[in-house]
Amino acid sequence: MASSLREALARLHIVEDAAAPCQWHDFAALDWDALLTDSESRHRRSSLFVRASLVRKGMLQHYIMKKRFVDVLPDGFSVDLEDEEDLESLRCRLDTWHASAKEQQEPFWVVKASNANCGCHVFVARTPSEVIDRVREPVLEGVVEWVVQRYVAPPELLRGRKFHIRAHMLLSGCPQCGTTRAWLHREYHVALLASEQFSPQSEDHHTHITNACFQEHHPQFVKDDQTFMVGELDAMMGRVGLAEHLQARMESALSKALEAASLGQAGFATLPHCFELFGADFALENRGTSEPGVFLLEVNSGPSLAVFGPRLRSQCVCLLEDVLRLAVEPHLEMAAPQAFVQAANCRCARASDQSGF
């Protein structure tokens, strides 16, 4: 991301300076002590201080279920697994769920470790025994928190392959009013295509798991041939209005996800001096002549912008330019006020008018 970010900075005439009060790094590399001991300053940090209940899959599943939101995530549950006794309890729970869908050809479940990244510890399975067989080794090695969800089927296909959407959402705090606002970008979302033709009977995870890091290990993976802007899908799939439908459904799902995540007071805390770009992954369910179902799979902190690839690099730079324009540039020369202004009257309420968010 470094070269794309530098190009975005240059376009806005923002000087890169290691001593600047705005820091853009991974969470662990940020100077939190300076921010937390000098909250009246012009410090900005490119990460929320606490966001576990949004980005940890198990916590998000828990809080969305607690809010009783439906059709946000695929049907499922979170579960802690530590030993063979826990695995047997999970098998019994899955036996009950599986009884109503024995004729389904697609894999019935997706099982994923709550805190895993890059496609690690993500499995598809058709039977309860297969679920247990796939997770046993990582569970006994100490991976405790898991999410079990319905495999979204039948999936929407592009060129005969399964794909998912990586959408980009910005959360940005404002030191003038103390409010943190969330925006979903209106344009720069990416469709990521599997390397294998879809077949419900396929045992190859490259058919079913479209995670970019996982797909890159396939010998026939070509990023520029498997990465498209969501705005290209209308023409590619012959479905006028598809991108608009996806945008509306993704906005709705992420709004509910943020509302649910905020229930976890120890897992979600915003600060007015913090902002963060998130990558949200969505699966699409084919519903025949109706618009596709849109299901949130996970929300990623510090998302890799390498998903854009060389062909879409200019869109990546524009996305970063919009982040800077909305979350950084307005605060560079503005000192924090002695008292917060009314949120409705704050300039941040209209800031997105100048960007693609």
UniProtKB/TrEMBL annotation:
<dbReference type="InterPro" id="IPR004344">
    <property type="entry name" value="TTL/TTLL_fam"/>
</dbReference>
<protein>
    <recommendedName>
        <fullName>Tubulin--tyrosine ligase-like protein 9</fullName>
    </recommendedName>
</protein>
<dbReference type="Pfam" id="PF03133">
    <property type="entry name" value="TTL"/>
</dbReference>
